[in-house]
Design brief:
By secondary structure, the protein is an alpha+beta fold. The chain contains eight helices and nine strands. This is Putative NAD(+)--arginine ADP-ribosyltransferase Vis.
């Protein structure tokens, strides 16, 4: 069997037989090894393109490429905004761009397995989270199959008046994840992307002084009607009417 393919299998199965959070707690592998694993994941992504990929447009490809560079900032800012009425023409452009990226995702390979995300979360939200709660991300959610990549995104504390804490997510992807590694300008990130309003059920939480480790699994919105839900960005409880609007948009 090809050595590079074996490395990829090792990468994708990193936590198959390990304890929760083992992979993300391990010392980082060498830059050379991480780069090679990312390249292998990119190759796998390209090889996994199915019949839907034949319908992807040049505009959609360009949108995904731009998303990985800077487009994610505008798209996610718009999706997380509580009031978009003041966006004007920029709002219309953002909505069109978001639709284009979502359309592209539906034509890119699905990924099922484990991925990781490093970020900063409001301490007020972290303090009330329990296993079984569901986190709803109103924006696109970026993850990586490489824990080393995920950890890079939680190094620098954001400039925010809110009290934040570093969080490392271990994500069991059952649905909704699409690899953009074959198109992304940052293919070394081995990125798996979720469309807006992805739902993640908390399966395990481990709190330390420096980090909070959270294990989650992807779930359908329709499967968590009677579950405590929180907006991952704002930290606010997702009310039933708001939850319904997320499902129906």
């Amino acid at each position: 069997m090809n050595t590079r393919f074996l490395l990829l299998l090792c990468c994708l199965s990193f936590t198959t037989f390990s304890q929760p959070f083992d992979a993300i707690k391990q010392p980082n592998r060498s830059e050379e090894e991480v780069t090679q694993l990312a390249e292998d994941f990119k190759d796998w992504s390209k090889a996994s393109n199915g019949w839907r990929y034949s319908f992807i447009t040049a505009n959609e490809k360009e949108a995904v490429e731009d998303f990985s560079i800077s487009g994610y900032q505008t798209a996610n800012d718009y999706l997380r905004a509580t009031d978009t009425s003041t966006w004007g023409v920029a709002g219309a452009d953002a909505r069109q761009y978001i639709r284009t990226v979502k359309s592209a995702l539906n034509k890119l390979p699905k990924y099922k397995g484990t991925a990781y995300r490093g970020t900063w979360v409001k301490l007020s939200l972290l303090n009330k989270l329990e296993e079984g709660d569901v986190l709803v991300e109103p924006a696109f959610t970026s993850t990586s199959t490489l824990p080393e990549v995920a950890k890079r995104f939680s190094v620098v504390h954001p400039n925010s008046p809110q009290r934040l804490k570093r969080v490392l997510f271990e994500v069991k992807i059952n649905q909704g994840g699409h690899t953009i590694a074959g198109l992304s300008e940052y293919s070394k990130e081995a990125e798996v992307l979720f469309a807006p309003n992805a739902h993640f059920r908390i399966t395990q939480i481990e709190r330390t002084s420096n980090h909070t480790y959270i294990g989650v699994e992807t779930v359908k919105a329709s499967a968590v009607k009677n579950t405590q839900k929180y907006n991952l960005y704002s930290g606010e409880e997702v009310e039933a009417s708001f939850w319904h609007s997320l499902v129906c948009t």
